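Listing S7. Sequence submitted for prediction.
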Amino acid sequence: VGYGVDWGDPINNALRARILFNENGGMNLANLAKPTLGKVQGTPAWTAGSLGSGLDLSVTNTDFINGFGQVLNTYANGVTAAAHLKPSSGHTAYGFIFEQDNNAAAGEFQFYLFSTGMNLGAYIRGAGADIDSGVTLTAGVSYYVAIVYNPTGALKFYVNGSLKNTTAYIGTPETPSTAVSAIGAAGRAGATGGSSIGSIASMSIWQRSLSSPEIQRLYTEPFAGIQTPSRRFISLAAAGGLSIPPWWLVDTTEIVGASQS
C-alpha cells in the first residue's frame, strides 16, 4: 500500500498538489492530491532527497517535469507553494520551483529562483513585475522553502519554517492560467532556455493562504497530512479489515490519535 492524503487532517484543506518524489526511479511522478501523473522530461538523475529520494534538475536547462494539468483555478483564498529544494551552483537564470504558465499570456503563477543570484522570487500576473524576496539561498544546501500569497495583498517567504520576508503585492491577480503546471527550467508551453533549480524532493500547492504555524508544522513534520504505508495499515485494521497486534508490537508513533492502555 502506498502513500496517500489524509483528507481528515486540516492541513490538507484546499490542497491541490502533494508530490513526494518517492518513486526513486522512472519517468512518472504521482500527485497525491489529484489523479494526475507528472512526466519527467530530459535526463534528470534520481538522487537522495529530504524525504527519501528526489530529482536532480541541475544538469541541463532542458530537465523539467510537466503533465500535472491545471493545478490552480482561483486566487480568491490565496495560494501557498512549498518545496524541499537543494539549489544548484549551475543556476544562471530563472529556475522555476513551480509554475502554471502559458508563456507570457494571461494568469501566470511562478515561484522560482531569481534570474540573478540565489534569491527566491515570485510572479503572479496582475502585479506587473517580478517580486524579489530578498531571501538568498546557498548552493548545495537543502531547504524547505515556501511562498504564501494572501489576497489582502501580502506575499510571505519562508525558509525552513521561519518567515524571512513579507512583500507587498501591488495589483489584482488575473484568473489563473489554464496551462499545465510544471517544475524545473523550461516546463511552460512554448518556453525555451531557463535555468536549473538543483534537486527537488517535494512540491506542494494549496489554494489558500497557510498560516505560519502550518508552515512550521510542514517543516518539522515532512509527512504531515500524509498517510504513510504504516498509517494506512492501522487505518485498515481499525476498520475491521485486519487484525491488530498488541500495542507493544506496533510503532504507535504512526497511529493517529492512538493511546496505550
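Caption to Listing S7: primary sequence and predicted C-alpha cells for the chain studied. DSSP finds two helices and 18 strands in the chain. Residues 136 and 229 are 36 Å apart (CA to CA).
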